[in-house]
């Protein structure tokens, strides 16, 4: 569903993906909702949003997980929402990520990794996000940080950027991610970092209004051709992920 009306004088182009319109795969041990085409879910109108290629909303059962599998030339970001996820990779990393942690991998020339639910008594929920890089065949790398969840109360906490010296993890792309957790009726403005970028907003919890578009839990809204967006929480403890990304794939070097 595309909207080309002006919203609050700022947003001129947008695409709305309601939660119940996403692709769904239920393998018993894994239930995954796909905002964009992935595996057996193929939708020619849902291939990507700019360089944002994959946004998977995954639930993994107790003690289960993804066996070792390969990736290359992709920036892969994992955001745990509940539970503990154990990660192992061909770079020698063995780590556990949980709510408040952010994990980023540059697959570059090629890596293998596995992901398992660390717990035997609860499921784990996490977002797996793939971003096309602006450099191909880089040396694979791994990054993981733990954030202070209080720093996202009624403000947008930066969790990812293109700059290793900046807040959050970093990737090979001119992208910035933020998470905010807001009280009901709290409003803020997000100003884009780079001209020509767009923003994909994904509601983690609660209800929001962006411009004049109402969003509910797990809805996604892509916005481009704007310098800023107005965001208002319509419920208590409403939580949102903003992913600012280039709208065009930059020439890979």
UniProtKB/TrEMBL annotation:
Q: Would I find Hydrolase among this entry's keywords?
A: no
GO terms, molecular function? metal ion binding
Q: Which Pfam families match?
A: Pirin, Pirin_C_2
Residues in a coiled coil are none
Cofactor binding summary note: Binds 1 Fe cation per subunit.
| Keywords (A to Z) from UniProt | Iron, Metal-binding
Which part of the chain is the Quercetin 2,3-dioxygenase C-terminal cupin domain? 159-245
Binding positions for Fe cation per the UniProt entry: 69, 71, 113, 115
Cofactor names from the entry are: Fe cation
Q: Does the keyword Ubl conjugation apply?
A: no
Q: Which family does it belong to?
A: Belongs to the pirin family.
Supply the name of the protein: Pirin family protein
Naturally occurring in which organism (per UniProt): Flavobacterium omnivorum
Which taxonomic lineage does the organism of this UniProt entry have?
Bacteria, Pseudomonadati, Bacteroidota, Flavobacteriia, Flavobacteriales
